[in-house]
Amino acid sequence: MMSTMTDAWRTLAPPAGDEHGPLSPLLLILTVVTGLMDAFSYLVLGHVFVANMTGNVVFLAFALVGAKGFSIAPHLLAVGSFVLGALGSGRLVARVGGGRGRMLAATTACEVVLVSASLAIGLGVDNPGSGLACYILILLLAVTGGLQTATARRLAVPDLITTVLTRTIAGAAFDSRLAGGANSRVGRRGLAVAAMFVGALVGACLVLHVGRPLGLLVALLLLLPVTVAADRLSRSHPAWDRVS
Question: Count of CB atoms within 10 A of residue 121's CB?
């Protein structure tokens, strides 16, 4: 138990000299953002995920065989937009150059623009889950998800890809002492799961009980400090900022 708590604390507050510096807590915040965005998209935009592409691929298969409640176009648009975002991440990272902090700052700055546009649309229409507004929101938010996922992959902070939990949960079980492993890193991995859960929980509560677009507002309020922190903390070119 003590090692789990220590593992979790070092993820939230990395010690001096940590090889990933402040990237771990910043990526945990982005994991919360993922939960917020997927809660909004699934509950408002017709059972579509904008970050979890596994679900969209499965739902697309359901739609192709005529399952009730599933449509081809929204899921296909989400997957295509996510790919576009991932491609954009590759171009953006190559263009900005520099270290990992600058990569993260540039990506989240783009996310701020995309989520701001999504929030404006969500607040500006009577029903963001129908018509052209729905498709534009899927496009904008799935591009955001693709940007974030691809950049997180490039940053290569273990267990913190921000949008995927399947491997994280499986790794915690496989590496546990119960399975014969030596280090499950359950504190760190548990925080990633908890961050996604909290984001989805808050997002769902806002959609169902307060106002449908407000989850996007919370996501935006989280993205802004991540952008500023990633930029400022990397300006002195610390060791953790170097690209491996």
Answer: 18
In a domain, 189, yes or no: yes
* Chain-centroid distance, C-alpha 184: 23
CB atoms within 10 A of CB 16: 5
- 123 dihedral zone (left: phi>0; alpha: psi -120 to 50; beta): alpha
User: Does residue 236 lie within any of the structural domains?
Assistant: no
Query: Which tens digit of pLDDT belongs to each residue from 45-98?
Result: 999 999 999 999 999 999 999 998 889 999 999 999 999 999 999 999 988 877
Q: What's the Cα-to-Cα distance from 225 to each of 77, 105, 213, rounded to whole Å?
A: 30, 10, 20
Cα separation, 120 vs 105, in Å, equals 22
- The closest of 227, 232, 231 to 115, measured between CA atoms, is 227
CA 104 to centroid of chain Cα atoms = 12
Q: What is the CATH number of the domain that holds 154?
A: 1.20.1250
**Cα–Cα distance measured from residue 213 to residue 203, given in angstroms and rounded to the nearest whole number:** 9
The set of residues, in sequence order, having a beta carbon less than 8 Å from that of 46 and lying 6+ positions away, is: 71, 74, 129, 134
User: What amino acid occupies position 97?
Assistant: G
